[in-house]
Amino acid sequence: MSSTLASADGTSGPARIINRGTAIVLLLLGFVLVPALYQTEAIGIETVNMLGRYLCFALLALSLDLIWGYGGMLCLCQSFFFSLGGYAIGMFLAHHGGPEGIVDANGWKLPACLFVVYPYEVGQAPEEALLPWFWKPFWSLPVTLLLGMLIPGLVAAVIGFFVFRSRVRGVFFAILTQAITVAAWLVFSMNQMMFCGTNGLTRFDRITTSFTEVIQIDVDPAALKKQQVELAEVRRVLDTYQAAHDGSLEQDGHHFTSRPRKFLNVNADFAKLKLSSPTGSVQLGDIAKLEVAGWRLSEHSVKFALYLVTITTLLVVFLGCRLMIGSRFGRVLIAIRDNETRLRFAGYRPYVFKMAVFAISAMIAGIAGMLYAPQMQIFTPTNLEPKESILVVVWVAFGGRGSLSGPVAGALLVNLLYFYLTGWSPATWPFLLGGIIVFVVIVMPDGIIGFWKLMVSQLCSGPNPTQPNTAAVDETPEHGSGIPITDRLRALSMRQRIDAFESQLDSPLLAVDNIQVHFDGFQALDIDHYSVPHYALNVIIGPNGAGKTTLCDVISGKTRASQGRVQFAGQDITRLSEVGIARRGVGRKFQTPTVFDGLDVRQNMELALPGRQDLIRNLNRKATDREARQIDEILDRVRLIDDVDKPVKFLSHGQRQWLEISMLILSKPQLLLVDEPAAGLTDEETVLTAELLLELQDEHSIIVIEHDMEFVRLLNSRVTVLNEGRIIAQGSLDQVKQDPEVIEAYLGR
Predict the structure, then answer these.
(1) Residue at 25 is within a domain
(2) Partner of 684 at 20 to 30 A CA spacing, among 17, 457, 536, 583?
(3) Between the CA of residue 298 and those of 206, 272, 343, 374, what are the distances in Å?
(4) Co-location of 663 and 678 in the same domain
(5) Do residues 602 and 312 make contact, with C-beta atoms less than 8 angstroms apart?
(6) What is the pLDDT of residues 44-56, one digit of tens each?
(7) Which pTM value belongs to this model?
(8) How many alpha carbons lie under 13 Å from residue 334 in its C-beta half-sphere?
(9) Does residue 468 form part of some domain?
(10) Angle, to 10 degrees, between the axis of helix 386-399 and the axis of helix 447-461?
(11) CATH code of 220's domain
(12) What average pLDDT is seen over the chain?
C-alpha cells in the first residue's frame, strides 16, 4: 500500500499539510489571481472561459477519486455521468437557443438543433414534427438542475445495485463500466434517439430562469417615423396577439415586455406580426429589436460569472468530500478498498456503501457536465468516447489518487499542458500523454501529491520519515501482578478443563448436522454431527486439506453447504449470507490477519463497534466516550494502547493478529472462529495469544483452527480432528494422540 493511500483520511502531518496547502494555493489562484488578471486585462475572457472548463474537468476527476482513490473501484464510465449532466443542461439551453425551429402541434417549441436533424418518417412533413416527451421537463431551469444531478445518481445506483450485489469488482468492474460508456456513446449518436445524433446539442444562446420565455421588444423611434407607424398601433397589434396566446404585456415607453403562456418562436410569431401603415404592410421585426430575455452566453460578464460559479461549486464539493471522507462513512470506503471481505465478515454490507458512493460520484460528475456545457456552448457525443474516460483516470493518477487535492491539481495541470503543447506542436501531444502515464506508473505511483508529501515528510522528520519504529513487542510480562505467565496460563487452562465437562446451557450454541460440501465433484466436507457448547473453547486440527477452513467457511456463510444444516443459538443459519451470520453473533478471524492498512489502529477498532454497520449509522463522525473507553481497555489488554494512532501497515505480524482479535472482541460475537492465531508469532506472542483466548472463553464460545501442537497444548482444550473432510476423533490432545486413525492421518506423518 502506498504511503499516499495509507494516509487517505488525511490524519498524518505531511498529508494534512499537502492537502491543505494545495487547496489554499488553488483557491488563491482561482478566486484571487485569475479574477485580478482578468480585471486588469492581463488575460482575456477566452482564457477565463478555458480555465472554467478545466475546473469542470477537475470536478470530474474529484468524482472519480471518491470511488477509485478511496473506494478502490476503477470506474471507466465517469464520462457517461458527465455527459448525462451535460445533455440535461444542453437540452435546456437548446430549448431557449437559436431562432430556427417550429412550434409543434401540441404547442411545444421544437429546438433548432433537433429541428435540423429530426428523423422524419417517410411522407412526414416538417410541420408534423413533435417534441419528444423526454425533452419537455428540461424547459425549466430548476427542474433541469435537479434532473441533471438525479439522473446520473439514479443510473449509477441501478448499475451499482446489480453489479455490486453480484460482487463484480477489480478489472471486471472496469471493463463493464467501459462497456456501458461505449453503449451510451452509440445510443446518443443515433438520430433516431432524438438527442441530435452526432451533431450534438448546439445553438446555445442564453440562460433563462422563468418557465415561459420573456420577449423583450425594443421599438426603434426612427424606424417608426420612417415607416409612418404609430406607437399605439404597435400596442394594439401586440394586445391582440397577446389575447390570443394568454399571458401579460407591459409597456415602458418604446419598450414592451411580453410574457406569453404558450411556447412561441420569436421570428415566426412576433417578428412577422403585421402593422398598419400608410406606406403599406409593415412587419414588427422591421421597426423593433426582438429578443428573448436572459443571460446571453456570448457576453463577457456571463462567461466570467460561469467561471466563478464553477470554482465555487468545486470548492463546495471539495469541502463536502473532505467532510465525508473524514467521517466513519469515509473510513468504511477505505476499508472496502483495503479488504472488502473482512468488512463483510464484520457485519457490513459493502455493496450498500459502494452503491452510495457510486451514486454520489455520478451526481458530482453530472454537476461537472452541467457546468461544462454552457461554457463550451456545444455538447456532442464525443464526450462519451472511450478515450474520455481514460483521460479522467490519467488526471487522477497524475495528481495522486486517494488525496482530494491530487485529482484537482492533476486535471488542471494535464489540461494546461495539453493547451500549450498542442498550440506549439499538436503531433507531440499523444506521445507526451503516453509518457505521462508511463512516468506516473514507474516513477511516481502516488502522483505529484505523493511526491510532494514525501518531500514534506523528509523536511519535517529527516531521513526515512515513513518508517516508524516497528521493533518487536516488549517481552517483559506486563499483566498478572508479578505471577509468571506460564503459571497463570496453567491456572486458566485447569479452570477451563473443569468447566468443559458440562455446558452452562442445555442446548449447544452451535450444531452442525449432516453437512456435505462438494467442489466440482470433489467432496471437501462430510460431517454427521459437530457441536460447540456455550462458553467453550474447541480446537480443530488436521493435516492440510482436511477441511478445517472449509468447515469455518460453512459456519460463517462464506461457502454454501451442498446439503445439511447449521444451527446457531437455536436458529438455522445454513442459507444466510456472511453479513447475516455475522450480525447474529459469529465473528471470524482469518489465517492471515485481515485488517485495514489504510487506517490507524483506533480507526480499525471503531469500524468493529457493534450496531453501527448500517449506512446511516456510519454518517456519525466519532465514537462516543463510552465506546472510546471500551476500545482503550481492549487495546491495553493486547499491548496496543501505545500504538493506537499508528497506521496499521507499520504493525508487526503479532500485533496485527492481536488487532484482528481485538476487533472481534469489540464486536461482541457469541462465537469466535479463529484460524491459526499462532502462525508466525514469537514464543512470547504465542503464550500471550493463548492466554487471551482462554480468558475470552468466559464471555464467548471459541473455535480455534491450529497446526502448532505446542499452542494446542497450551490451550489444553477439547480437540476435534478432521481428515479428508470427516471428523475422525474428539477429546483432549492426549486422548486424540493415542487414536490410531489420528496417528496415521496426522500425527504420524
Answers:
(1) yes
(2) 536
(3) 8, 26, 52, 10
(4) no
(5) no
(6) 999 999 999 999 9
(7) 0.87
(8) 30
(9) no
(10) 0
(11) 3.30.2090.10
(12) 85
